[in-house]
Design a protein that fits this description.
The protein is of the alpha/beta class. It folds into two domains: 1-160, DNAb Helicase, Chain A; 186-457, P-loop containing nucleotide triphosphate hydrolases (Rossmann fold), CATH 3.40.50. The protein has 17 helices and nine strands. Helix 1 (15-27) crosses helix 5, helix 2 runs parallel beside helix 6 and helix 10 (217-231) packs across helix 11 (245-257).
Length: 464
């Protein structure tokens, strides 16, 4: 690496590679396309090279081509020609490369050094902030991780793929489906009807389960996690902003063993139930489920933590409970704008990590006031959720003779009295798939056993 100062260490750079890129771009339109795709003005260390690169792109846009004469005139028009070394230096750039065939090699060298410089600058900024008073440690850690990861993304910023490459992947997937007709393309929900309607939870998709408080949306999410992690042994992470990890695990044990939540809390389980519970504790010891019960998480914190979890534990499903409790990076006067930022962040997370992200969300009071089934427009605080989500499921428990109290049973069984549950074995529940970007909408009918915190298929009485 050339060094311009024998005392102070110069930032990483390679002037010859930069000259090779610019000379190739003057010689070849194809080199201009490659340079535009993979480099930015600040990818070049030398200021004059930055100015030449920007002028080259402008000339190419204006004339569909770039040559030394057009470039010279553009630099002269900008008053930069003499500052970059005049027409003589432009000729040096062309003479530096006999052919543009090696431009991709030169581009990779320039990119590598640009990334190193950016990483060095990022670390210096983080170090400076660490020495200054008034910075919260959590904010510093979040900033450090975000900025370092953004440097990593510079390495693979392009997602351009040729049609042939994409088509080959589609054909391979279709061939697999043809060999196994009816096979789920996503992760099973654990309910046959819901699987048939949605074909499972798909990679890169952002889904929402929404309902009014105490209808059972969090309980449904726990039923889903019990199936994904215990039955299918797929790793998942739950970000619970409302409930502690101990309560979550207690509820999962009740779901798994069909234990009455009141008996579980009071310690009045029968000997047989205690035996079943002890056995399930051994089974749960190796469950690939990770629980983060940090309250008041910001969307940036959640995304940073999710990245680490996926890298370290090969996470296949992310569940967030619940969306409206997340905080935006900056406080907004308009809460709808804040929720829109959170929704967009969760959608971006699903795409970035290529895993399904499922968020629990609340509906507004209109459902109760009007005593009707919920609609997408009932999503609380932001219509942006409707736009961002790939699938929206609305959980509804209609009032009926067997469930006269409708919504008042509590998400986790905590409001259920001891005696009255024996007279009501189950209540009806509908999972309304109100939006599905890549499939049909519809309704899946289930039973909700509130004593056991279990959702079960209505037709068979057992999980699908």
């Amino acid at each position: 690496m050339p060094a311009e100062n024998s005392v102070a260490l110069a930032p990483p750079h390679d002037i010859q590679a930069e000259m090779g890129v610019l000379g190739s771009m003057i010689l070849s339109p194809d080199a201009v396309y490659l340079g535009r795709e993979k480099l930015r003005e600040n990818s070049f260390y030398k200021l004059s090279h930055q100015q030449i690169f920007d002028s080259l792109l402008h000339v190419s846009d204006e004339n569909s081509a770039a040559d030394i004469i057009l470039l010279r005139n553009e630099l002269k028009k900008r008053g930069k020609l003499e500052k970059i070394g005049g027409a003589t230096y432009l000729r040096e750039l062309v003479d530096a490369v006999p052919t543009s065939a090696n431009v991709e090699y030169y581009i990779n060298i320039v990119r590598e050094y640009a990334i190193k410089r950016q990483l060095s600058q990022t670390c210096a900024a983080i170090q400076k902030a660490a020495y200054q008073d008034g910075h919260d440690v959590e904010d510093l850690l979040d900033r450090a991780e975000t900025e370092v990861l953004s440097v990593r993304h510079m390495k693979d910023s392009s997602r351009i793929r040729h049609m042939d490459t994409v088509l080959q992947g589609v054909l391979e997937r279709l061939d697999t489906l043809h060999q196994n007709p009816g096979q789920l393309t996503g992760i099973s929900y654990g309910f046959t009807d819901l699987n048939k309607l949605t074909n499972g939870l798909h990679k890169g998709e952002f889904g929402v389960i929404a309902a009014r408080p105490s209808v059972g949306k969090t309980t449904f999410a726990l039923n889903l996690l019990q199936h994904v992690c215990y039955v299918e042994r797929r790793p998942a992470v739950l970000y619970s902003l409302e409930m502690g990890a101990e309560q979550i695990v207690s509820n999962l044990l009740c779901i798994h063993n069909r234990l009455d939540t009141q008996d579980f809390r009071r310690g009045t389980l029968s000997d047989a139930q205690w035996g079943s519970l002890e056995q399930s504790i051994d089974d749960f010891a190796g469950l690939p489920l990770y629980i983060d019960d940090s309250p008041a998480l910001r969307i940036g914190d959640l995304r940073a933590r999710a990245r680490r979890m996926c890298q370290q534990n090969n996470i296949e499903l992310i569940v967030v409970d619940y969306l409206q409790l997340l905080r935006a990076p900056k406080s907004r006067e308009n809460r709808a704008v804040e929720v829109a930022e959170i929704s967009a962040g969760l959608k971006a997370l699903a795409r970035e990590l290529d895993v399904p992200v499922l968020a629990v969300a609340q509906l507004n009071r209109s459902v109760e006031k009007e005593e009707r089934k919920p609609r997408m427009s009932d999503l609380r605080e932001s219509g942006a959720i409707e736009q961002d989500a790939d699938i929206i499921m609305l959980l509804h428990r209609p009032k009926n003779e067997d469930d006269s109290s409708g919504y008042g049973h509590g998400d986790y069984g905590g409001e259920v009295g001891g005696g009255d549950t024996d007279d009501i074995p189950a209540s009806q529940a509908d999972m309304i798939v109100a939006k599905q970007r890549n499939g049909p909408t519809g309704v899946c009918h289930m039973n909700f056993w509130r004593r056991f915190l279990r959702f079960e298929a209505r037709a068979t009485g057992v999980p699908g």
